[in-house]
Amino acid sequence: MSEPLEPGGTWTCECSKAHTLPAYVSAHWEVNLTHTCPCGRRHNIKAGVITLVQTKTKGQRPATPKPIQPFPGKCQLADDLPGSY
Prior knowledge:
Elements: E1 10-12, E2 18-20, H1 23-27, E3 33-36, E4 42-46, E5 49-54
Antiparallel strand pairs: 1-2, 3-4, 4-5
């Protein structure tokens, strides 16, 4: 969006769904708020300025976390340690 909206103003997501800035936005005017459209797009709203954060893409999967690596080195049982009985 190029011009800031006033509280209660309406804006349209890229999917063509219209949204209205609720009273909560005007109460938190200088705070960076995030709005998620039902289409999956996320927008930041601050002082009436709305910017696209994330675009939903079909077929995109979330990143797979890396597996936990074992501690490098040899593990010893207590019986193998020096001084054990």
